[in-house]
Structure formats: C-alpha cells, structure tokens
Amino acid sequence: MKLSKLKLLPAAAALAMLCAAGSAQAGAYGYAYNNIYGLQIAAATGSITALNSTTISRATATLNGVSVINGGPGLLDSPRAAVGAVTKGENNFTQQGAAGNYSRGDAQIVSTQFPSFPPGSTSTQAVNVAEAHLDGPSGTADASGRNGSTTGFSVNFVVGSPTATLSFDFFSSPFMQVFLQSTVGQLSTATANLVMTITITDSTGATVFNWTPDGVIGSGIFGGTESADAANLNTGLATNFLTRGNLFTYDPTGCGTPTGTGVGTACGGHFASVSNALATGNYTLTLNAVESVDLVKQQATPEPGTLALLGLGLAGLGYARRRKVAA
Length: 327
Description:
There is one protein chain. By secondary structure, the protein is mainly beta. It has two helices and 18 strands. The strands form two sheets. Strands 1, 2, 5, 6, 7, 9, 10, 14, 16 and 17 form a ten-stranded antiparallel beta sheet that branches. Strands 3, 4, 8, 11, 12, 13, 15 and 18 form an eight-stranded antiparallel beta sheet that branches. The longest helix has 23 residues, at 304-326.
C-alpha cells in the first residue's frame, strides 16, 4: 500500500467524523466497501461463447458470538445480515458510523452481462459492504459481504484464428476505515479487508489466468497482461493498541465516503487486462469480491502506577478511619 493513499487523523478529528449521530464514544470500529462497476469481459481475439453462469451473493454478521448468514448460490442480491443496533436498510452501503453496538454485512450484484441474467445488462456491477462497531467494555464482532459470479464458457475459433484471448475492463471505488478508542485494552484490534480476483481455469481445474489487482502495473497477474491498475483491491487496514486513538482511512481513488445508496458510477479508478492465448476447450471464469471487518475490544486495565496510587489511597482511607475510631 502506498503511504499517500493511507490517511491518519488524530483522535479529535476521528471522533468528529465518526460520531456525527451524537455519540461521543467510538470504541472499536471498522468499515469496508467496494463498488465494482462497468465490468466488460469480451473476446479480444478469436471467438468465445458464454454458456451458463452461477452467482453467489452472501452476507454475514457476528456480534459477541451471535451470527447471521444470508444468501448463497443462485442469488444476485443477498438479504443483508444484521446483528444488534443496525439502522441502515438493505442495499444501503453508506456508513452507519461509530455509534451503537452492531455488525452488518450486505452484498448485491446490481447487473451482469452474462446469461441467464436479466436481459439488457451490458456490464457487471457488484457492491459489497461490511461494518461493525463495539461500544461496550469488551466484545467481538465481524462482518462480510461477498459476491461471486461463475460463468462457464467454451472457446470457439473462426477459420484462420488459432487463438483466443479475453479482455477485462472495469472501474472500482474501494474505501475502508478503522478506529480504536484511546482507552481500549492492549489486546484490542480493528481490521478491514478487501479482496477482488478474476480467475480462469481449464477443464482439468488448472489455473490459466489469475488477476488480483494491486495498484502496480504488471504485478498481481498470472497468464495475462495489465494495462490499467489504479489501486490495490487486495489489501487490508488495521489498528491496534499501539496505534489507538487514530482514524485510519483507505481511499486510493479519492472518491471519499460512499453517499446515497453507495451504488454510484461517477467516481472510480480504471482497471484493464487481457489474458494470454487460450487453447480450444471449455473454461470456467470466476469473479470473487469480498469486503470484511473484524473487531476485538478488550476492557482497559489500570496501569501499574495507577494501581499503586489507588492502593495508597485506600491505605490512607483505612488509616484515617482507624484514627477516627481511636479518637
């Protein structure tokens, strides 16, 4: 991750940004979001025919051991997973913020170019969010939003075209934030993660193409060539006891916090690649996008010096009480 794409704010500014709803407490907080849109997959050379497809849209949320898992294979839009004081509705990907005790995950494939999906879709868009906040003295929470789309296709060649290649072109606006209150215990952590991969496997299950955009042209790709890679879509953001009291933000494309429903197409970084030549045969194309957060909040314990002062204070009270009884 480039340092220029990681923003850090002191505690005062962090609380001002996160606690707009009137709560001054921000115990442990994590938010991960990505909007992948305008995805076009096409035959750059040769002839490729799409046969069928299977979608996976899944959302999970866990809060202090209570879990909800919604969605699965065959779903374009999974029901949101919500535990605790969740105020955002389904497919509202904007931040709820650092107030209340909750965990939520949501995933939606808004559109897709592949059959057997709704006709008229010329590109694919997938949006995921994971968000959680802990405001008690201690606890754990995690959430994720996952979208996957698997399309089987056979490669057919026109006469005089001995090879076929696939091209990929899309935009993305990833965003993450993590925060720990300055008074948390030493084992407290807040993490957020992004995953976005495109993979092609042949009929034997061997991987012939794998693309994990990482913000560096030529890196994170196997079996193909990149021409645009605007940001790292396979990365994480974390804070712990040593970095508590600071709000960490990952906003590599400069789009800022998602607004409205979060399903926008006005801002995003550009990504493009093309596979190497594929031999005649059957292949499986898999798109996988996951956003997740994981929180652990431990109650703070008094420092040794504080305990010593407390002990002296109690001893003093005991001495004063004995003197009063003696008198």
